[in-house]
Amino acid sequence: MATVLPDPSPDAPGYWVDACRHLMKRDRVMKKLIPQYGGACLQSRGDAFVTLARSIVGQQISVKAAQSVWDRFEKLPRKMAPAQVLKLKVDDMRAAGLSARKIEYLVDLALHFANDQVHVSQWAEMDDEAIIAELVAIRGIGRWTAEMFLIFHLMRPNVLPLDDIGLQNGISHAYFSGEPVSRSEIREVANSWAPFCSVATWYIWRSLDPLPVSY
């Protein structure tokens, strides 16, 4: 008997239902995992600067810790916008839980946006790797952060963030009985996910933390 999936949010990417069907057909873990989380789905926050700032805040810490720091940081500027972030005092940013390095990265990000050094209007026409190349030119934005941007802001369907700790841990528990996994093993698992690796990754994150991930 076929599993009936609840209707996703109206804000869901156009590919979401097809992606879920594809993943459930191709992957035994996804077949069990996807129906557990109802109609929830990936949703874009619609603001490039905020998405990248959230990703920087979330680097190398857990989703829960990242949310806690973000909640404090978000209260500092009048509005979470480049010009407002550039007005913040370093001491206030440190008090919110940001390291000195992340503060430098957030300031550099704000400068790039304030000075029109990023080409937001062209991103829709650029492929994933071209966008990654542009973003990693900003201080503090490595491949992982750029991949989070592709998933959470541009909602690109087939991003596989190999360096993501949550993805590594989730695949370890779901596919390898808790044993550590290599990049090649992650790629092997993801072979059946393509061309919807972003969607599968999102559900792997959900398996670790029932609250939807957002950056």
TrEMBL record:
<feature type="domain" description="HhH-GPD">
    <location>
        <begin position="57"/>
        <end position="209"/>
    </location>
</feature>
<dbReference type="GO" id="GO:0003905">
    <property type="term" value="F:alkylbase DNA N-glycosylase activity"/>
</dbReference>
<dbReference type="InterPro" id="IPR051912">
    <property type="entry name" value="Alkylbase_DNA_Glycosylase/TA"/>
</dbReference>
<keyword id="KW-0234">DNA repair</keyword>
<protein>
    <recommendedName>
        <fullName>DNA-3-methyladenine glycosylase II</fullName>
        <ecNumber>3.2.2.21</ecNumber>
    </recommendedName>
</protein>
<keyword id="KW-0326">Glycosidase</keyword>
<keyword id="KW-0378">Hydrolase</keyword>
<keyword id="KW-0227">DNA damage</keyword>
<dbReference type="InterPro" id="IPR011257">
    <property type="entry name" value="DNA_glycosylase"/>
</dbReference>
<dbReference type="InterPro" id="IPR003265">
    <property type="entry name" value="HhH-GPD_domain"/>
</dbReference>
<dbReference type="Pfam" id="PF00730">
    <property type="entry name" value="HhH-GPD"/>
</dbReference>
